[in-house]
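queue> pop job 88
queue> type: inverse folding (structure -> sequence)
queue> payload:
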């Protein structure tokens, strides 16, 4: 990560924390009333091919539901309806501003993968994780909706894992590497703006 990109991350994270804190407190209160504790979901993700970190999100699955692996149709019953909009708007990812401030993540980059996929696709993730993982990115914006459609029809963890490995990981990597070849502060700002306006975009 270049010093300029890191500086952009710090400035944006500090600026966004000001409006984000009251929103986060309201969401935490709603979660506490409806679902109770714990309020946060903490999961290991990979910053480099060998170094993990604790990614923080608001918990949007019921306590006791399996948090292992990616989210497919097999987990749909574990997500209370009130939190589907929260996940769709990605407001559950507000705590990741802390990950950005810590330097675990950038605002823009590949989505941080689980260790199991990094271990099983070492050559691919050695290339992809030359960029610091991000809250958003080219793959997130261009492939996320299609990924959700692919995984939504999966009825078991094994089926979800199979589809993710064979139909999602390679395609996302292609987009992540396109971003890597064209990365610049201007490109980052375009992707951040596109992410910010996405919840309000119809069409």
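queue> result:
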């Amino acid at each position: 990560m270049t010093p300029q990109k890191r500086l952009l991350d710090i400035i944006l994270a500090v600026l966004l924390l000001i409006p984000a804190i009251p929103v986060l407190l309201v969401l935490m209160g709603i979660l506490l009333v409806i679902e109770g504790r714990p309020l946060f979901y903490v999961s290991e993700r990979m910053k480099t091919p060998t170094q993990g970190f604790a990614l923080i999100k608001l918990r949007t699955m019921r306590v006791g539901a399996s948090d292992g692996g990616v989210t497919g149709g097999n987990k749909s019953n574990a997500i209370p309806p009130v939190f589907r909009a929260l996940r769709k708007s990605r407001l559950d990812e507000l705590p990741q501003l802390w990950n950005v401030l810590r330097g675990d993540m950038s605002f823009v980059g590949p989505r941080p993968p689980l260790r199991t996929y990094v271990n099983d696709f070492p050559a691919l993730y050695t290339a992809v994780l030359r960029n610091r993982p991000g809250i958003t990115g080219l793959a997130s914006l261009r492939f996320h909706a299609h990924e959700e459609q692919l995984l939504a029809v999966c009825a078991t963890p094994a089926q979800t894992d199979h589809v993710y490995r064979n139909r999602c990981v390679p395609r996302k990597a292609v987009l992540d590497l396109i971003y890597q070849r064209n990365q610049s502060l201007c490109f980052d700002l375009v992707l951040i703006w596109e992410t910010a306006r996405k919840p309000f975009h119809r069409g």
